[in-house]
Predict the 3D structure of the following.
Amino acid sequence: QVQLVESGGGSVQAGGSLRLSCAASKATYRPYCMGWFRQAPGKEREGVAYIYTAGGSPYYVDSVKGRFTISQDNAKSTVYLQMNSLKPEDTAMYFCAAARFGPCWGAGAEYNYWGQGTQVTVSA
């Protein structure tokens, strides 16, 4: 069983930036996909960004395209989410997750391991 631990959340003003990190407890853990999700109070969880750990183009939900960047450091078993130009509507609990198999997004995507989440709050 692998554990995922997020960090880097916090409170910022609109237009600011944050970088979230997600570290796997096992250095040798290599999932097929890693993803960042978020859930705001009273709303359903939504996928924000996904990446194939073997490489390839990541995928972003439309609302964060051009503002968020997902990246990985396989040597550190860590995935990052750089968030720029933050908006109040980005306020949510952010979770990272790992999928053992593809696809990484869309129909059929299934994430098996989840972190505990890190809170991001953006004030106007």
Observations:
- The chain has no helices and eleven strands.
- The mean pLDDT is 94.
- The first strand starts at residue 4 and ends at 7.
